[in-house]
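Journal club prep — side note

Before the paper discussion, L.F. wants everyone to see what a predicted structure for a comparable chain looks like in token form. Sequence:
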Amino acid sequence: MRFCSFASGSSGNCEYIGNGKTNIILDAGISTKRIVKGLEEVNVEPESIDGIIITHEHSDHIKGLTVYESKYNIPLYATEDTLKAIERYDKDNRIDTSLFHPVKPDREFIIGNMSVKPFSTSHDARDSVCYTISDGDVKIGMATDLGMYDNYVLTNLMESDLLFIEANYDVAMLQAGKYPFSLKKRILSQYGHLSNDMSAKLILQLLGRKVKHVFLAHLSKENNYPELAYESVKYDLEREYGNISMFDIRTADRDNPSCCVTVN
């Protein structure tokens, strides 16, 4: 199975998952031009996408959706509340609502030869979810835009071969930064985002199972740096786990496609 992040951060999110038979896009928070360019780099035609799955209705996850859907008419999967929000966002009615497929947390559904399972996340959006995607041999676990995790989240992510985990902010940078207090409070809350430290704690509980690849995702432009997120998480993992050289750990770029990873 192949995985590539086209963009990951508060300015836009979009990821690609494919296995030669089925092609899926996760979120469409960047322009159609950028999505198409990313797909070209992995040799996938934009009209060959079998489904777009959406985590929640915030603009950095859906703002490129109306144009892409109006051009390519791809089946769209999201929770019912998220689909309603997308319909409100689509003020010019450019998306054919017959393409809408409501999903429910904890109920798997099939796209091509892949099984997709939504699971609920703690975020300030209506009925937000993340997903695990599996083709029977390989499992990819995604967990971004969540202010906290628990055993429920851990259980869903277990046995993943690739993890795409939020490491949004450094606590000290956020607290000392220019954001207003209300926004800092929101980010730090259980409905906000995972810090570098929390990301490391989550990843630590999943290492040593099937994990081969880890992407640190959804980094804040104002309150984090890729090098800081990587070194902070790496330090915590080495301190608690020991040698982590067998795991491929990297950060997902905010604005550009990341290296395409093939997971066997």
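L.F.'s comment for the group: The CA atoms of residues 30 and 114 lie 24 Å apart. Keep this in mind when we get to the figures.
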